[in-house]
Amino acid sequence: MTHAAPSPLAARRSGPLRGRVRVPGDKSISHRALIFGALTVGETRISGLLEGEDVSNTGKAMRALGATVERTGDGAWRAHGVGVGGFRQPHQVLDFGNSGTGCRLVMGAVAGCPVTATFDGDASLRKRPMKRILDPVALIGAHAVDLAEGGRLPITLAGARDPIPIVYRTPVPSAQIKSAVLLAGLAAPGETTVIEAEASRDHTERLLAHFGAEVKVEAEGVAGRKITLKGEPELTPAVVAVPADPSSAAFPMVAALLVPGSEVILTDVMTNPLRTGLITTLREMGADIETLDVRNDGGEAMADFRVRASALHGVEVPAARAPSMIDEYPVLAVAASFAEGTTIMRGLKELRVKESDRLAAVADGLRANGVAVEIDGDDLIVHGKGRAAGGGTVATHMDHRIAMAFLVMGLASGKPVGIDDAAFIATSFPDFVPMMRALGADLG
Ligand code: S3P
Asked: N- to C-terminal Cα distance for the chain?
């Protein structure tokens, strides 16, 4: 996806936000539902799919690899797959746009098939490390035929003719690395095992089991997991209902906490404990977030949340919590600016290799809006004063979450907050601006 001209946007101090909204479907599950559907013979039906650019690029890649992927209604999709190991040789470059998840997961899936595919993406994705995927898939028998300097995109990957089952310890807690190895291991005979020192989001394991694969999950050490997949399963078509994305819900949630007088209900939000670190942290800061209705209908658990404007105070967020809220630090840093006292967010090394260097982008954005902030090694320290001056324009660096986080800031700061480009919001939350306006946000 190319975004020709940047589209700047500003957020202004708003009256109380009120209403009930369902943010779009979870991005992680949406990518996986399409990929698993494409590896399954028969019809997979998906409801609530996130119809953003990132997931749309994964759908296009699945088509290029031989699957049928069709939209049948609002968020309703149907996939007819090729079977495990059955991808066909694509005739075009697989362009993942802005999406590290789509690119890395599909690299894993291709690594287990005897095809050669070229992976590419936009300027942001071309900067991101891919060696973390190329290393394990090389052990499985795939190899990069061509790659840019530093192991970056564009990369042409030759999948393994005879994939080898491996035991792999992820070097960093990353669901993308874990998922790439498991997807490659699907086509390998015998057991593929991934060991992670800290548990990362487990949607791949859950969906694999949902599609009929044999997956064993065991505890590893204090906070880790060992996941073992039995290779060459016959995946069975499944029905997947995608719950609302907690990483997208984070933006209206923090906005409702910061804008005085607000009361917002967020419905159907996924409450998988490996994704709810932000809610835990905000509650520690004094946030009034009420859980209204918890459901678990066999898939992922979800709940509705009532969020009321709250006076927040600074806290220390332990490094061990980072995997369960890795995408939420930009908006947490905004919340911390409006808290009284210092918030220390520890262990954020991985934030440097997201859609942008989020540690630097957050610190620069906060400073531009009069907030005192420090980066100390891998820790982010925000000195909250109960309010933010605003008045700055934030460089978003092709990063949707930087864009949305600073628009949230502008809704409660003294002067408006501008962002240089709102276009990338469409990668994960295409309706963000109209949905926030419907709640009462002054965005324009
Ligand atoms: C994701 C994993 C995380 C996260 C990303 C989505 C996934 O990345 O930041 O937005 O769906 O597996 P890492 O695995 O690199 O931590």
From this structure: 24
Sequence-ordered list of residues with C-beta below 8 angstroms from that of 57, at least 6 positions apart, any chain: 1, 95, 96, 97, 99, 102
Which atom of ligand 1 is the closest one to the Cα of 327? 9
| Per-residue pLDDT tens over the stretch 99-144 | 999 999 999 999 999 999 999 999 999 999 999 999 999 999 999 9
Q: Which pTM does this prediction carry? A: 0.98
Mutate to test the pocket of ligand 1, among 31, 176, 200, 324 (most ligand atoms within 8 A of CB): 176
pLDDT at residue 56, as a whole number? 98
Q: What is the pLDDT of residue 3?
A: 65
From the list 202, 245, 268, 327, the catalytic residue is 327
User: How many Cα atoms are found within 13 Å in the side-chain-facing hemisphere of 313?
Assistant: 2
Residue nearest to atom 15 of ligand 1 (CA): 174
Q: Is the pLDDT of residue 298 over 90?
A: no
Greatest C-alpha distance within the chain = 61
327 noted as active-site residue: yes
- Structure confidence at residue 2 (pLDDT): 55
| Distance from Cα 118 to the centre of ligand 1, integer Å | 21
**Mean model confidence pLDDT for the chain:** 97
13, with CB counted inside 10 A (0-12, 13-18, 19+), is: middle
- Taking the C-alpha atoms of residue 177 and residue 168, their distance in angstroms, rounded to an integer, is 10
330 preceded by a cis bond (ω within 30 of 0): no
Residue 227 phi/psi, 5-degree rounding, is -115, 125
What are the structure tokens assigned to 141, written together? Answer: 């028998």
Q: What is the pLDDT of residues 250-295, one digit of tens each?
A: 999 999 999 999 999 999 999 999 999 999 999 999 999 999 999 9
How far away, in angstroms, is 402 Cα from ligand 1 center? 16
- pLDDT tens, 95-111? 999 999 999 999 999 99
Centroid of ligand 1 to alpha carbon of 322 (angstroms) = 12
Name the residue of 27, 28, 399 to mutate for ligand 1: max ligand atoms within 8 A of Cβ: 28
Q: How confident is the model at residue 39 (pLDDT cuts 50, 70, 90)?
A: very high
CA of 174 to the centre of ligand 1 (A): 6
132 CA closest ligand 1 atom index:
15
Which residues sit with their C-beta closer than 6 Å to ligand 1? 28, 101, 174-176, 179, 200-201, 326-327, 350
